[in-house]
Amino acid sequence: MTAVVMDGNGLRDEIVAGLRNRIEAENSPDICLATVLVGDDAPSQRYVRMKHKKASEAGLTSRHVDLEATATQAEVESVVRGLALDDSVHGILVQLPLPDGLNPEPVIDLIPPKKDVDGLTERSMGRLVRGRPGLVGCTPLGVMRLLERYDIETSGKRAVVIGRSTLVGLPLSLLLARKGVDATVTMAHSRTADMAAVVREADIVVGAAGQARMITADMIKPGATVIDVGVSRTEDGIVGDVDYEPVSDVAGWITPMPGGTGPMTIACLMENTLTAAQLQGAFPA
Ligand code: GUN
Fold first, then answer.
1. Are residues 90 and 204 located together in one domain of the fold?
2. Which atom of ligand 1 is nearest to the CA of 139?
3. Which of 180, 176, 80, 81 is nearest to 136 (CA)?
4. Do 160 and 103 sit in the same domain of this protein?
5. Which tens digit of pLDDT belongs to each residue from 68-98?
6. What is the arithmetic mean of pLDDT over 151-176?
7. Which of 130, 143, 211, 265 reaches 20 to 30 Å from 163, CA-CA?
8. Ligand 1 pocket member 269 (CB < 6 A)
9. Distance from C-alpha of 244 to C-alpha of 251, rounded to nearest angstrom
10. Is residue 259 predicted with pLDDT exceeding 90?
């Protein structure tokens, strides 16, 4: 079997174009995404640049605050406090991880839930747990959009999410188990015993562990959907959690890397910024 490749770039372009049409049709005042980057990590700088490029294509405005790696906790918090109070800013994203020595938790706590385009605040996470509408993290949302686009059946299916991060694994597991999606979800992680046996049960496998090529072809049930969220920097360059070529001979659907979940994260960030503007009454609901 050769898997259908789930084209994240194509779907991102459609989502971005759709947002642009909605924004132009409303002729609304500027909707602004603000990003904060601390330090000079090159991949993080690239991700942030891409976020601004796509914001512009989506018809959003954007603002960026760059802080030196030597910034103090108080300086980072002060920047986020300022953006929180600024009515012309509708979405705030603090690029993670922060450099060693900085604690992201109190920084995230300063983001007003209505501007929380990463879905990381206690309020956003709490709403997700309680099944109430709210802002949901861009990567988990992007994975759900890909499953929808490719008509992947979820109801009653076995989903295994490898990784339990607050950014991806945890919220995605909740989304997959939600009423209406109805997958039977296993959240696996670095301490899971016999990972291969657990993954072999899955109709939908999501690698979100950041372990290079840990998901191998022998672990995949023929015809399964395999979604790669992992990003590892290796000597061979950036690779995902999925051993792509052999796995694509067994799977039914697979996300490429790059070009799968990465672009979807960006598309959903733009979507979340518009949703945030709606929550703030800055764009018609
Ligand atoms: N670093 C890697 N992915 C993300 C993301 O989705 N949001 C933030 N804030 N930082 C990240």
1. no
2. 6
3. 176
4. no
5. 999 999 999 999 999 999 999 999 999 999 9
6. 98
7. 130
8. no
9. 10
10. yes
CATH of the domain at 233: 3.40.50.720
Tell whether ligand 1 has an atom less than 6 A from the beta carbon of residue 229. no
| CA nearest neighbour of 249 among 228, 223, 268 | 223
Q: Looking at the structure, do residues 193 and 142 belong to the same domain, yes or no?
A: yes
Is residue 145 domain-shared with residue 68, that is, in the same domain?
no
Q: Reduced to 3 states, what is the DSSP secondary structure of residue 40?
A: coil
Query: pTM for this structure?
Result: 0.97
CB of 80 within 6 A of ligand 1: the answer is: no
Residue numbers of the domain that contains 103: 26-112
Is residue 161, in this structure, part of any structural domain at all? yes
Identify the residue whose C-alpha is closest to ligand 1 atom 2.
Answer: 96
Task: Evaluate whether residue 275 is within a structural domain.
Answer: no
Q: How many domains does the chain have?
A: 2
Residue among 76, 56, 60, 59 nearest 68 (CA): 76
Shared domain check, 148 and 96: no
